[in-house]
Write a structure and sequence with these properties.
The complex is a heterotrimer. Chain A is built from eight helices and twelve strands. By secondary structure, chain A is an alpha/beta fold. In chain A, the strands form three sheets. Chain A has a seven-stranded mixed β-sheet. Chain A has a three-stranded antiparallel β-sheet with strand order 7-6-10. A two-stranded antiparallel sheet of chain A has the order 11-12. Chain B is of the alpha/beta class. Chain B has a domain at 1-97 and 179-185 and 213-265: P-loop containing nucleotide triphosphate hydrolases (Rossmann fold). In chain B, the strands form two sheets. Chain B has a six-stranded mixed β-sheet, with helices on both faces. In chain B, strands 2-1-4-5 form a four-stranded antiparallel β-sheet, with helices on one face. In chain B, α5 (115-125) crosses α6 (131-144), α6 crosses α7 and α7 (161-173) runs parallel beside α8. Chain C is of the alpha/beta class. Chain C has a five-stranded parallel β-sheet, with helices on both faces. A four-stranded antiparallel β-sheet of chain C has the order 2-1-4-5, with helices on one face. In chain C, a hairpin with a 2-residue loop joins β4 and β5 (75-78). Classes of the chains: A alpha/beta, B alpha/beta, C alpha/beta. Chains in contact: A-B, B-C.
Chain lengths: 298, 265, 232
C-alpha cells in the first residue's frame, strides 16, 4: 500500500472538472443556484458533503486550509474535515484565519476581515430560500427566473406580526447583486453584513440538494427588510468573557448546573489571538481559579 | 369623471374570438366568442362536463387554446393577445390586474400563513416595502370582507369555510384588479353562508366596477350576481344574453330544462 | 314630439321544448305609443298578455319580431335588437320597472334598498337616503323598520318598499305591474299621488291595474290588448 490510496483531494479529476464548471457558472451569475452532480462522500449528508466537494474541486497543493464549525476550529466536524484533506491532499492546514487560503465553514464567517486571496466555502443544508413557503421546486425556480420575490417578504411579515420584529436570526435572506435572492446558509444574521462587498470569493455547496452558488468578490449583498423595520444585525449586550471583544458573535456556555453561564466568542481563533495579544475579559482566568478552588476544598 | 368612465366602459376589456380546445379527440370547448366590458359580470352556466371550467382556464391564460384567441386591454389601454404575452407579463397581470377565486379556498390561499400576510402578499409582490402600510391595508380589506381584524394574525386553516372564501376574495381584490375570474365561489358552502358571500360579492363588484367571469352550475348565483349569462353544453355556447332574459325567457331546449330544474325559492 | 315608447308590430311566442316543442303564441302585432307625461294602462282579461307586453318593453322577454323603440338619452334605441349592455344602460338611466314582488336582497337595510337606484346613478349616499326616507314615510313604513332588511316584512310592507324603490329615481319611463294589488285604501291613494307627480315631471308610464277605480284615477289612455292576443 505504498501507492496513494486516493486521487489528490479524494475526488477524481473528471468530477472536479464538473464541479469547477458549476462553480464558474455560479460566479458568473451571483446568487443563482447551479445544479451539479453531487457525489457520494465518505461522510453522511448533513456533515458538509457539499462544502467538501467544493473545497476538493478548488484545492491546490500550495493551499493552506482552515475548517471551522460554528466558528470553532476544534469541534469534531472541523477536525475530521481538516484531517480528511490533510490525508487525501497533503495540504497544509491552519487554524489562523489570516494564514488560510481556503476556509471551509459551517454556520459562521470569521471575525477577522477576509482578504482578496481567500476563498470562503460554506456548507449548505437547504439552498432554496423560498422552500418553506413554496414547496414546489418547479415554481421556486420560475420565481427566481422572473425575480418574483414578494413571498420572501411574506416570511418577514409573518415574523413581525408574530414577534413584533423580524425574528429570523439565521439563514436571513439576502439579495445578491440586485438580482437573486439567496439563502446565506444557516449563518447568524450577525454575519450578513460581512458578505457585502467582501474581498474574498464566497462559494456555497449543498451536497444533498446538489446545488452550488457563489458571491464573487466585491459584490453587493443586501439583507431583505421593510422600510419601517430595517435589517438589524444581532447585538450582544455583553463583551466576550474571555477576550473582552465587544463586536464579535458570542456563544453561550453553561458553566454549572445552577444556571451559571458565560458568553464567549464563537470564533475561537479570533478569541485566542486577542487573548494572546493581551486582551482580557471578566472571566479570563476562570478555569484556572476553579481548579485552584477545587484543590482547596478537596 | 363620469364621461371618462363612460368612455372607458365603451371599449371591451376582454375579447374572446373563436376559442376552441380539444383534448385528443374530445372537443372540450368549441368556437366561443364574446366581449366583456368593464364592470360587467358574465356567468357561464352549464352542468359538469359542459366545458365551462375549460373555458375559464382558456380565458385566464392557464391553458393554451387549440384555436382562436383572447385579447385583453391592459391598464395602458392597449389590447394585447394573451398568447403573445411573455410568462413574466402574464404572471404580473395575474397578481395585479386580475384575480382568481377558486372553489376550494385552500387552492387560492396560503393556509399556513397569517390572514394579514395572505392579503398583503400581492402588495409585497408589486414592491410594497412598508410593513405598517401593508398591515393597515390588509386590515382594511379584512373589514371590507367582514372578517374581524382581531383574526388578522391567524392562519386561514383556523377559519371557517365562509371566512376562508371571504379571505380569498380580499387577497384577490387588494391590488384593485379590473377582472376577476371565479370558479364556483359558493360551491361547498352552507346555504346561509352562501347568501352572505353572494351579497358581499354583489356589493364589492358594484363598488369597484369589477368585471367578473363566474363559472357556476347554480342559476340562483347567476341571477343574483351576473348581468349576462352564457349557457354551455357539450363545449358550445348554446344560448347567451341578458341574465333575466335567458332565465325568464329561455329559448333553447337545454336552457329550458336547466331553468325548470330549479326548485322555486 | 317623439314618443317615449314606440312599440311596432311586436310578436312573441313561447316554444315549450319540454312539452314536445309545442308553440304557445303570446301576443302578435303589438303596436302602441306612449308620450311623456302620459300614463297608458293596458287592459284585457287575464292571460291576454298584458304582463308579457310589459316585460317585452322592459327587455325582459325577447321579441320574435317587431320593434320596441325606447327614447334613451335623446336617441331612439330598439330594445328588440339591442345588445345586452345597451339594455342594461337603458334600464339604468331610462326605464324603471315596479313589479308586484320585491326581489329581496338579503341583509341590505330597507333604506338602502330604496336608495340604491339613486346611488347607482351617482347621487351621494346621504342625499339618496334622505329621499328614500321621505318616500318610505309617505308610504307609511315606520322609521324603526328602515334599518332592517325587508326580507322579513309582511307582503304589503314589502310591496310598499318595492314601490318606493321604483318611484325614487328620476327615470323618464316607468313600467308599473299591479302596483296597488295588495295595498289598503290609504296607501293606494299615495300611489295615485305618486303617479300624478311623475306625470307632472314628464314621465311616460305604462301600467297594469286591475282595480277599476285606480285605473280611472291614473289612466290617460287605455290600450286594450285583446286585439294583440295571438290566435292559438
Amino acid at each position: 500500500m505504498n501507492a496513494p490510496a486516493y486521487n489528490f483531494a479524494y475526488l477524481d479529476e473528471q468530477t472536479k472538472r464538473m464541479i469547477r464548471r458549476a462553480i464558474l457558472k455560479a460566479i458568473a451569475i451571483p446568487g443563482y443556484q447551479v445544479p451539479f452532480a453531487s457525489r457520494e462522500m465518505p461522510m453522511p449528508y448533513g456533515w458538509g458533503t457539499g462544502g467538501v466537494q467544493v473545497t476538493a474541486a478548488i484545492l491546490g497543493p500550495a493551499d493552506v486550509l482552515k475548517v471551522i464549525d460554528q466558528g470553532s476550529d476544534d469541534t469534531t466536524n472541523a477536525i475530521s474535515i481538516r484531517k480528511f484533506f490533510a490525508k487525501t491532499a497533503g495540504v497544509a492546514t491552519t487554524t489562523a484565519t489570516e494564514d488560510a487560503t481556503v476556509i471551509q465553514t459551517r454556520h459562521r464567517i470569521p471575525e477577522a476581515t477576509l482578504h482578496a486571496d481567500q476563498v470562503l466555502v460554506y456548507q449548505v443544508p437547504i439552498p432554496e430560500p423560498l422552500r418553506f413557503l413554496e414547496p414546489r421546486e418547479t415554481e421556486t425556480r420560475r420565481m427566481h427566473a422572473l425575480a418574483e420575490y414578494g413571498l420572501m417578504h411574506v416570511k418577514l411579515y409573518e415574523d413581525i406580526a408574530r414577534f413584533g420584529h423580524i425574528a429570523t436570526a439565521y439563514a436571513y435572506p439576502v439579495k445578491v447583486n440586485a438580482r437573486y435572492v439567496m439563502d446565506p446558509s444557516p449563518t447568524p444574521k450577525f454575519d450578513n453584513p460581512k458578505m457585502d462587498n467582501c474581498p474574498a470569493l464566497q462559494l456555497f455547496g449543498a451536497g444533498r440538494e446538489k446545488r452550488i452558488y457563489a458571491i464573487p468578490p466585491y459584490t453587493k449583498v443586501v439583507s431583505l427588510d421593510f422600510e419601517d423595520h430595517p435589517f438589524e444585525p444581532y447585538r450582544f449586550n455583553a463583551p466576550c468573557a474571555l477576550c473582552g471583544a465587544e463586536n464579535s458573535y458570542l456563544d453561550e456556555i453553561v458553566t454549572d448546573d445552577k444556571g451559571g453561564r458565560m458568553f464567549v466568542c464563537s470564533d475561537t481563533d479570533y478569541c485566542e489571538s486577542r487573548q494572546a495579544a493581551g486582551h482580557h475579559g471578566s472571566l479570563s482566568a476562570a478555569p484556572y481559579k476553579e481548579k485552584a478552588q477545587g484543590g482547596t476544598n478537596g | 369623471m363620469v364621461d371618462q368612465a363612460a368612455l372607458e366602459n365603451d371599449q371591451p376589456l376582454l375579447v374572446a374570438t373563436s376559442l376552441s380546445k380539444s383534448f385528443g379527440r374530445i372537443a372540450a370547448c368549441r368556437d366561443v366568442s364574446f366581449s366583456l366590458y368593464p364592470g360587467e359580470v358574465l356567468a357561464i352556466v352549464g352542468e359538469s362536463g359542459s366545458g365551462k371550467s375549460t373555458l375559464l382556464q382558456l380565458l385566464s391564460g392557464q391553458l393554451a387554446a387549440s384555436g382562436g384567441h383572447v385579447s385583453y386591454r391592459m391598464r395602458d389601454g392597449v389590447a394585447r393577445d394573451l398568447a403573445s404575452l411573455g410568462e413574466a407579463e402574464r404572471r404580473f397581470l395575474y397578481r395585479t390586474d386580475w384575480g382568481f377565486v377558486h372553489q376550494d379556498p385552500a387552492q387560492g390561499l396560503r393556509m399556513a400563513v397569517s390572514a394579514g400576510a395572505n392579503v398583503g402578499e400581492r402588495l409585497m409582490a408589486v414592491g410594497w416595502n412598508h410593513y405598517g402600510r401593508i398591515r393597515e391595508t390588509a386590515s382594511d380589506w379584512l373589514t371590507r370582507v367582514e372578517i374581524d381584524t382581531a383574526r388578522i394574525d391567524d392562519a386561514p386553516r383556523t377559519y371557517s369555510g365562509g371566512m376562508r372564501q371571504r379571505l380569498q376574495i380580499a387577497r384577490n381584490l387588494v391590488t384593485e384588479p379590473r377582472l376577476v375570474f371565479m370558479d364556483e365561489p359558493t360551491g361547498g358552502l352552507d346555504v346561509s353562508v352562501q347568501a352572505r358571500l353572494l351579497d358581499l360579492l354583489r356589493s364589492l363588484v358594484a363598488e369597484l366596477n369589477l368585471a367578473v367571469i363566474i363559472v357556476t352550475h347554480d342559476l340562483a348565483v347567476a341571477r343574483l350576481l351576473s348581468h349576462r349569462v352564457m349557457v354551455m353544453k357539450g363545449g358550445r355556447v348554446i344560448e347567451a344574453g341578458l341574465t333575466d332574459q335567458v332565465l325568464d325567457d329561455p329559448r333553447e331546449p337545454y336552457t329550458q330544462l336547466l331553468v325548470s330544474s330549479i326548485l322555486p325559492p | 314630439m317623439t314618443a317615449m315608447i314606440d312599440v311596432t308590430d311586436a310578436n312573441k311566442t313561447f316554444t315549450m321544448h319540454l312539452q314536445g316543442g309545442i308553440e304557445l303564441p303570446v301576443v302578435s302585432g303589438v303596436t302602441f305609443q306612449v308620450n311623456a307625461s302620459e300614463c297608458v294602462v293596458l287592459s284585457g282579461p287575464s292571460g291576454a298578455g298584458k304582463s308579457s307586453i310589459l316585460k317585452m318593453v322592459f327587455g325582459n322577454y325577447r321579441c320574435d319580431s317587431g320593434r320596441i323603440g325606447i327614447r334613451h338619452r335623446g336617441a331612439v334605441i330598439d330594445l328588440a335588437s339591442a345588445e345586452p349592455r345597451q339594455i342594461l344602460n337603458v334600464r339604468r338611466s331610462t326605464i324603471g320597472y315596479v313589479s308586484q314582488f320585491l326581489r329581496a336582497v338579503p341583509r341590505v337595510a330597507t333604506i338602502d334598498v330604496v336608495a340604491e337606484p339613486l346611488i347607482v346613478n351617482g347621487m351621494p349616499r346621504t342625499d339618496a337616503q334622505q329621499r328614500a326616507g321621505n318616500l318610505l314615510r309617505r308610504l307609511n313604513i315606520p322609521e324603526r323598520l328602515w334599518q332592517l332588511p325587508p326580507a322579513t316584512f309582511s307582503g304589503g310592507e314589502q310591496q310598499r318598499v318595492n314601490i318606493a324603490r321604483g318611484f325614487i329615481s328620476d327615470l323618464p319611463i316607468l313600467l308599473l305591474d299591479e302596483p296597488t294589488a295588495s295595498l289598503d285604501a290609504a296607501n293606494r291613494a299615495v300611489v295615485v299621488e305618486l303617479v300624478a307627480e311623475k306625470k307632472r315631471q314628464g314621465v311616460a308610464m305604462v301600467a297594469i291595474v286591475h282595480d277599476d277605480e285606480i285605473r280611472h284615477l291614473i289612466a290617460d289612455r287605455i290600450v286594450d290588448v285583446t286585439s294583440f292576443a295571438a290566435a292559438a
